[in-house]
């Protein structure tokens, strides 16, 4: 295997001629958005150039330190944690090139998708699909396999057509389907363990609006007619309210209609916050003392907020994104799409058979097209993502172990693969069974980072 580097001699000369002074900050405490995981890196860096990052890596090699790169810190796991060196990419956030003819955009890895969405909109472009949150870095969303929904659409890394990687040795690699193809297949979902992703080139589409329709249904109706729902809406998902039959079906489809001047969501802001946030958080806190209240809370809030048909039209990214208000613990596994009904009914049955095991709403069910990315949960199969959640009212942890283990057991039974950004209990033995291309990824990782500079405790469980 031959890997091509860009201008190796020139960069070596640049290293010899230019001495960049980079300083790390001590005493920084890192926490993820949900405040469920954190660490205290020895040094915390916010580089502004490739030369500064290269110097940080040189320093790490000399001191035998590990390095983790972070963006928005939204991953609800310890995948970004380290006690050694942490690189926060927020100052490397430029749009480098917009190619309107190819409908492609090249950006620095630290740019937040929230900023990229606005910039693309100015050029009449958009990303074809987005996750629920856009306060996340471009390099991070591809690194963990962020997804949304839509059986005609893949996970976000499928929109990547090229990227630039800085390896542990300081070598810069250009990667695409035609250059360093094997590294490209690995780096499109890189787990932060191959190097520092400097730039990403996304394939875009023309700017578009979405018409969102949400309406009530039942679990049996949705599961019995799942194929029809998938055909009716390009971005179909549904929310199941555990301990009940209640479901909220959500269709999102491109439209030529213009939306209202103010978003429907904006118009309902007061109601959503007064009831959908403050009241809900208080009742969930009460339920930590009386767990049986959760069944009533799920039914009550479905009736209050989800029992009517609601429509909205807006620019695509404003429909794709929604506010995650609560700190939370989550799990999210992808199973073969044909297992959707069987797995969800099994989870429902487990809750019914164990009255002491409670589950917050919703269980969010989404869909994604199969792909050929080595560590994609959708590798070589169309998939159903089944996301469970337990909120942390006022920061209080709610017992969830039995629910978590029951869910994981059902997901494994049906051939599931966990979302990389979210906490799970899988080890290398599990991943070797789940991913046919896992040995290929390991080979590339060991070649690019033979000393394990970019590993941490989360990744050690994956690879050792």
Could you explain the architecture of this structure?
By secondary structure, the chain is of the alpha+beta class. 33% of the residues lie in helices and 23% in strands. It contains 16 helices and 20 strands. The chain has helices spanning 8-17, 50-63, 113-122, 138-143, 181-187, 219-224, 226-232, 264-267, 269-287, 293-306, 316-320, 340-353, 401-413, 428-434, 438-448, 457-463, and strands at 30-31, 38-39, 43-45, 67-70, 85-88, 95-99, 104-108, 125-126, 160-166, 172-176, 196-203, 205-206, 209-218, 235-240, 246-255, 310-315, 328-336, 363-368, 383-391, 417-418. Strands 16-13-15-14-18-19-17-20 form an eight-stranded antiparallel β-sheet, sandwiched between helices. Strands 6-7-11-9-10 form a five-stranded antiparallel β-sheet. α12 (340-353) runs antiparallel to α13. The longest helix has 19 residues, at 269-287. It is globular and about 60 Å long. The chain starts with 7 loop residues before the first helix and ends with a helix.
Task: Let me know the number of strands.
Answer: 20
Level of helix content?
25-40%
Question: Could you describe the largest sheet, including whether it forms a barrel?
Answer: 8 strands, antiparallel
Q: Determine the mean pLDDT.
A: 92
Q: Please, what is the oligomeric state?
A: single chain
Our measurement of the CA-to-CA distance between the termini, rounded to an integer number of angstroms, reads 24 Å
